[in-house]
Every structure is written in C-alpha cells, then in structure tokens.
Design brief:
It contains 9 helices and 2 strands. A two-stranded parallel ribbon has the order 1-2. α2 runs antiparallel to α5.
Length: about 190
C-alpha cells in the first residue's frame, strides 16, 4: 500500500499506528531492546511512519492530555528521512524480535477457507498471535474476542480433517495448531 501510494503521488493516512496501544507497552526482550537504545517505543512507532514520504497523516488515539502533548512533541520532530540510522537499526532489531515471537505465520490469505467444520482459521490465528506476541491486556482482549466467536468458529471446533493443511500456501500445519490455539485462548 505505501509503495503504491508513493508511485501514484498519493498521501497515506495511517490509523492505529500503535496497534491499539500494544506497541506502547512491549514486554520482555523487546522492551530491553528499546531500553538499551534509550528509545521510546511510542515515539519510534510514530517517527517510523512519519519517516515515510508517502505518509501524510498519522491518527493515533490518545486517552489523556500527556499523550496528546507527547504526540505533538513527536510530530514536531518528525519528517521524511528524519530518523537517525542508529534508531532505524534498533527498529529493525525490534521487528526481527517480533517476527520471532509471531509464532504462526498466517498471512490471512484465506486459501484455507471455507473450513468444513466452520472454523474461522485466520481469525483464530490472528487472535492467538496477538495474545502471545503482546500479552497483558492485549492477551485478555483477544481471549475475550475468541470467547465472543460462535463456538463453531473457534479453534476448538476443528475436527483435524487436514483439508486446510493441503490448501495453505504458507505450509502451516493448521489442523495440528488448532488445539494449542484453543488452549491459549479458551
């Protein structure tokens, strides 16, 4: 999307740049990377977007006056090409660490669908990955979203028919993973 917009001379509006606040509160190894570099994950997420010449607007939800002030300060330092190379290296290390944690490489292509049992495979994987990757409040949110799915759409409804395994271009062993997805979210 960003490349297309740049090629067409279009501006891009980015919403939810902090993934519902989950990127603002990283844990474990990711928090350590940011801390050791002396960088704030919120500021860097916003700066990374503003660093792209095709991004014309970043809309970030704010819940208190301090967040408004912080975002204004971040925006005032922003611009295409404004991030130092060292900071971009840190962003790349954080991205690599997230990729390690992102345990099911589902791209939501939906080639696995429809499931004969009615399981919403990409949705289950999306909820699982978010819960595992971000933990905390995000984990609780995605467990609640899972509980809100009709029972027939949850991972627990998987009958292990393996029809989806044969269709997945990522070669994910979908039917083998469904039980673990349910154990994490159910």
């Amino acid at each position: 999307g960003l490349k297309y917009a740049a090629d067409k001379g279009l501006g891009v509006v980015i919403m939810e740049p902090l993934f519902g606040g989950a990127l603002a509160r990283p844990g474990g190894a990711i928090a350590e990377i940011w801390s050791s570099a002396g960088l704030d994950p919120v500021d860097m997420a916003l700066q990374w977007l503003w660093n792209k010449p095709e991004v014309s607007l970043v809309l970030s939800g704010m819940s208190d006056l301090q967040q408004v002030k912080d975002n204004i300060a971040s925006a005032s330092r922003s611009g295409a090409g404004a991030i130092a190379p060292e900071a971009l290296e840190t962003v790349a290390r954080v991205g690599e660490k997230y990729a390690e944690i992102f345990s099911i490489p589902c791209t939501k292509c939906r080639y696995c669908m429809p499931c004969p049992s009615g399981v919403e495979i990409p949705v289950n994987f999306e909820y699982y990955n978010a819960a595992v990757m971000f933990g905390g409040v995000t984990r609780t949110l995605h467990r609640n979203l899972y509980a809100g799915l009709p029972e027939s759409q949850r991972a627990a409804a998987c009958t292990q028919c393996k029809e989806c395994d044969e269709k997945c271009p990522q070669e994910i062993a979908i039917s083998e993973l469904m039980q673990g997805v349910h154990e994490e979210l159910g």
